[in-house]
Model the fold of this input.
Amino acid sequence: MFSFDNEPHTNKVVRPKRKYHILLILIFILGFALRLYHIDFLDLWRDEAFSINVASQPLHKVIEITINDMHPPLHLFLLNFWMKLFGSSAISVRTPSLIFGMLTIYFTYLLSTLVFSKPTYRLLTALFTSINPLFIIYSQEARCYSMFTTFTAAVIYFACRMNSKSRLSTYFYFILFSILGLYTHNLFPIILSSIMIAILIGILYPTSHRTKLTLVFRHGDFKRAAVSYVCILICYLPWLAIISKQYARMGTEGFWLQFDPIKDVIDTYGWFFTSRSYNRSFTLLNRFAYSFIRIFAIWLSIGGIILELANSTRHSPKLSWLVLLMLGTVFLISLKSPLYFIRYLIFVVPILLILLSYGIRGFLALLGRKLAIVLTAMFIISNLVFYLTNIAQYTYKAQYQKALRTIEFDPATDIILHPHAVTYHSFNYYSDLPNYIYDPKRGIAYFEGLAYISEQDYYDGHLEKFKRIWTLNLWNNNNFEKKLGTYGFEEVETKRFGNGLFIRLWAKKQMKSTPQEQIITPASRKSKNKV
Done:
């Protein structure tokens, strides 16, 4: 059904046959099934809980919090509207990301139609997008990254279609998705800047009528693109001053990331295709699948970049230059303010998957059709095996629901404390129990969701008046808990839940056993998402 013969260089668009339409539909069904499977398997982690807690506020409050945070408000606006209709359960709040994950498959496929005239490689690109572990993971997370990737793929697609023969609708959609992207993530200006440079040097135009790059400045394509950018800038002006302050704060107050220019570039490129690093706990099957995915995808996508750059024809846009521009810009920024991290760079993956198909066409076809089919099939199967048997089954996030069920809270004698905001947001999503952040020095960083926290969320009183203290800590940071001994408390019990979440019970030193008083458990809840 798939043919891996080298396709001829032609400007002619080959109309897919009916069987390709059927295959495309099946690919979309597969992508949907993978994204729906175990969508609520993992508990909402801090960033997800922060987004939902903020989106639950009135819109004017959402804007106020967002201004003092790190991201634009569009995703939170969407969540606010969505939760009013469908509630705030884990499945509900993650469904918008699933929808945008499906749209990413669609726009990546559309973008591939500008590169490949042969439907086989278009279908391969759509299939690679549907089974990519990184895309599946962020299609199951109530954050903005799936939405961010969709708008990026859409903007690049319409940018590549902008030429003298384009309808006004092409420019309208370019403007629309650009504005939506700018109000989704603060890295979107880098994408638009890279596209603008690509337009200036003429690498996004597949038309063959332009032979000299200097003509781009006089060509109607550029004039229309310039008008489009002016419209985008006008619509972005309200947020421009805010993003400047947010980046300035990142430069002065720092960020949670560290940047190793060599290691991070190498690691991140592999994560584009596997979503994670190698782990010794992998089964033998997972080790093989993981290794094969990395070897196949890394080398053939790099080969696709080289082949596309070496291709002197002008029959398709040079996406390699565009992805290098975007990654290079983030790399340079990261030398001062670290941003070179997998979820912030997810927007380049659609292009890399197209270039992977390009590499398959250029290299595997030379080895023979049968071998090309076998190796590509092994890559597809390895993706499915690695995701379904490893990623989808691994509780790599903290298990808040399970943890909260172990807390036997007595409001007359107990207090629940967090040494930082990392656990605070998820706790308040899942529970109505009174809980506080204990941070007398107010040392919480802005990137921990500080914008959502008010003075009422801190506890500044005396701890000696309590008989028991429940502490929630992530990554076993004992700096805070060591201080409890100075207040006359000793550790009674410690439990770990998932990846690094510790719940500890502390009691007055003269109370070594749980008091036989009336125990109040978190049985009554205000909303369905509560434990």
Remarks:
- Confidence is low (pLDDT under 50) at residues 8-14, 207-218, 515-528.
- The longest helix spans residues 220-253.
- The radius of gyration is 26 Å.
- The chain has two domains: 18-40+89-393, 400-508.
